[in-house]
């Protein structure tokens, strides 16, 4: 076997190994904690609602793919509810598509996204609706 063929085989093997680690999970109810790494989260249905918090992410290398769906949080009112909360150990998180909606007019300091010390975050939302919007803390 030539060095070139061996190099191509190694690249192919590493590429397939990286793909095999990733998985996709359907979120069926809120609140939901995502602690697995190398994961993709999608909503089960076009609108997923919860009375308090939505997604709590503690893992790394996670894609939250809302597509055209809606994540509605805080429908029960109350204070300090978050649509998506990223913990300090979370990193390399990609949130894309869809809508994050605060489902109640009552309550204070509820936000669509809380970044609490997490890093390497990419947000490409189609829509977010909350009086307080986003909060990032170091």
Quick structural summary:
It contains one helix and twelve strands.
Give a verbal description of the structure.
The structure is a single chain. The chain starts with a helix and ends with a strand. The chain has one domain. With 138 residues, it is mainly β. The longest helix has 19 residues, at 3-21. 14% of the residues lie in helices and 50% in strands. Residues 3-21 have low confidence and may be disordered. Strands 1, 3, 4, 6, 8, 10 and 11 form a seven-stranded parallel sheet that branches.
Provide tags for this entry.
138 residues; 1 helix; five-stranded parallel sheet; seven-stranded parallel sheet; mainly beta
Mean pLDDT across every amino acid position:
82
**Overall strand count:** 12
How many distinct folded domains?
1
Q: What is Rg?
A: 18 Å
Task: Report how far apart the termini are.
Answer: 52 Å
Helix content, binned percent: 10-25%
Order of helices and strands: HEEEEEEEEEEEE
What is the beta-strand fraction?
A: over 45%
Give the topology.
Elements (H helix, E strand, L loop, with lengths): L2 H19 L1 E5 L4 E3 L4 E5 L3 E3 L5 E3 L2 E14 L8 E5 L4 E12 L8 E6 L2 E6 L2 E3 L4 E4 L1
Parallel strand pairs: 1-3, 2-5, 3-6, 4-6, 5-7, 6-8, 7-9, 8-10, 8-11, 9-12
């Amino acid at each position: 076997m030539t060095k070139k063929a061996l190099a191509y085989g190694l690249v192919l093997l590493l590429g397939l190994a990286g793909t095999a680690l990733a998985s996709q999970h359907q979120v069926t109810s809120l609140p939901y904690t995502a602690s697995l790494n190398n994961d993709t989260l999608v909503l089960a249905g076009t609108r997923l609602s919860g009375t308090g918090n939505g997604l709590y992410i503690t893992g790394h290398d996670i894609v939250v793919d809302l597509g055209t769906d809606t994540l509605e949080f805080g429908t029960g009112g109350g204070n300090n509810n978050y649509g998506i909360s990223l913990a300090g150990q979370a990193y390399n998180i990609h949130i894309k598509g869809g809508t994050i909606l605060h489902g109640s007019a009552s309550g204070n300091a509820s936000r669509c996204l809380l970044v609490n010390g997490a890093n390497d975050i990419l947000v490409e939302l189609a829509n977010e609706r909350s009086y307080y919007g986003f909060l990032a803390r170091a």
